[in-house]
Design brief:
The protein is built from eleven helices and two strands, in the order αααααββαααααα. By secondary structure, it is mainly α. The protein has a two-stranded antiparallel sheet. The longest helix has about 30 residues.
């Protein structure tokens, strides 16, 4: 289950999306996230689905590999849907004991699952097609205007890229520790909620120690190489926009305009 998390991983292949400038992929991810919250109707989400399907096709990343990222957060999606289903006030549809499923709650539950699902896949697509170095350079370029306000842009970009890079590493470490503890008789699945929480202690302690050890090793390696941050440093491969990047900006603008127009002029609702 932990290995199914695709956020932070990089999938090596040759595609037009892999060759794009990381800035357009970062901007595209932000625009896609925004588009999911502009309108709450089927028309807007259908266009978002079609756009995401085309981008996945262009990326050449296997859909089965990408959809694995939803397995790890399925419990979170389920909990979110249940809370919206039972805690949203409105027109009653079904009553179960003291809980009532309302029309508005059902609609909100469906929409929130769609939003989160598209959000996770879209975010994973960015990391699957962008190396950590490219991601750092793209973030630093995008946030460059913040240097006027004395914001340490390079350090912030470096921390964000390192955090994304460490997600799959820590997940793999967690999987190894969990299997080692299970081989020693640990049980992470049976029992009450409190028992499961107590069973996580033998897992969390070595995981935290391992995370601090990896962070210390990384800090020592950067210090040994006299790393001083981004001030005065040159790039081996400086970012330069190409024709495909400008075309991608145009497609992104057309997509956002399409979501706004279709979602407003031709709204389709569940109920």
């Amino acid at each position: 289950m932990l290995r199914d998390i695709t956020l932070g991983q990089y999938y090596q292949t040759d595609s037009a999306l892999h060759r794009m400038d990381p800035r357009i992929k970062l901007a595209g991810t932000m625009v896609y996230m925004i588009s999911l919250f502009i309108y709450k109707n089927i028309t807007a989400y259908l266009l978002a689905f079609l756009f995401l399907a085309v981008v996945i096709r262009i990326s050449r990343v296997p859909f089965r590999f990408m959809i694995k990222g939803l397995k790890a957060v399925m419990f979170l999606l389920l909990i979110t849907a249940v809370f919206n289903l039972f805690l949203t006030r409105g027109e009653p549809l079904v009553s179960i004991w003291k809980l009532t499923i309302t029309k508005e709650g059902l609609v909100n539950a469906v929409y929130i699952v769609i939003r989160l699902g598209f959000l996770i896949i879209g975010s994973s697509l960015m990391t699957l097609t962008t190396t950590p170095n490219q991601l750092t350079d793209g973030l630093e370029k995008i946030m460059a205007p913040l240097k006027i306000f004395k914001v340490p842009v390079h350090e912030v970009a470096m921390m964000m890229s390192i955090a994304l890079r460490f997600i799959p590493i820590l997940m793999e470490e967690t999987d190894k520790i969990m299997k080692a503890q299970m081989a020693r008789g640990a049980d992470f699945e049976s029992g009450r909620l409190l028992d499961k929480a107590k069973a996580m202690v033998p897992l969390l302690v070595p995981l935290i120690i391992s995370a601090f050890r990896r962070a210390n090793d990384l800090a020592m390696a950067m210090e040994a190489r006299c790393y001083q941050g981004g001030e005065g440093r040159t790039k081996m491969k400086p970012l330069q926009y190409k024709r495909i990047d400008y075309m991608a900006y145009g497609v992104m603008a057309l997509y956002l305009l399409g979501v706004i127009l279709l979602g407003r002029l031709f709204p389709l609702h569940l109920i």
